[in-house]
Amino acid sequence: MSGHSKWHNIQGRKNAQDAKRGKIFQKLSREIYMAAKSGGPDPDGNPTLRMVIDKARSNNMPKDNIKRAIKKAEGGSEEHYDEITYEGYAPGGVAIFVEALTDNKNRTASDVRVAFTRNGGSLGATGSVAYMFDRKGYIVIDRSTTDADEDQVLLDVMNAGGDDLQTSDDAYEIYTDPKQFAEVRDALIKDGYKLADAELTMIPQNTTPVPADKKEQFEHLVDALEDNDDVQNVYTAAADED
Q1: I need a labelling partner for 135 at 20 to 30 A (CA). Which of 48, 99, 198, 209 fits?
Q2: What does the alpha-carbon distance between residue 176 and residue 198 come to, in Å, rounded to a whole number?
Q3: Statement: residue 123 has pLDDT above 90
Q4: How confident is the model over 1-52, as pLDDT tens digits?
Q5: What predicted TM-score, i.e. pTM, was given to this entire model?
Q6: 63 burial level (CB within 10 Å; 0-12, 13-18, 19+)
Q7: Please, are residues 167 and 197 in contact by the beta-carbon 8 Å criterion?
Q8: E strands along the chain, which residues?
């Protein structure tokens, strides 16, 4: 692994995301609906649904919201969302990979393109930056929630099938093969760890510093993409902020 600390960036954006809590719940509801519709409403028999529910809970999404999304799928709603990805570059040449769930491809494509062009970025063709990211299972243990030392955590992670452990002052960050993600997550929970985050994500192979004179544009671009109702995830190869 490159040493890129995803948790550092997550914490750095937490306050901004708290202000968008309603929008986050709306996006999570869409993910839950699609997972339940395609794989069934029982999370025990639908690993994708279970993962999205865990993600919703980690974002403090109310149980009633989760239940409503599942019941909507059970009720035979005809709503359908297509999974689409967009790739491009932010100001300063920082690669960006965007995942969307949309019921109108033309609208979403137009909105994403406008977000890039108005904020100094450029939208690229499919495959232009995807190869710069790796799909990984990502698990975080807040160090304040465990008495285990780094050696013990590393042993447990390896025994669970994890690929890599990164340690910071605040957290243990675990990376897994996507196919082993659920198995590793469940094993760590069984070992008594409380997980601060657990998801499938995209990790950049290398990172690019954002030039000081491009930082504001870069942040505006990421905000514009995250504010779009159809955009589920925005991944960047920006180097960690100090």
Answers
A1: 209
A2: 11
A3: yes
A4: 444 566 666 555 555 555 566 788 999 999 999 999 999 999 999 989 998 9
A5: 0.84
A6: exposed
A7: no
A8: 82-90, 94-102, 122-124, 133-142, 164-167, 171-176, 195-204, 231-236
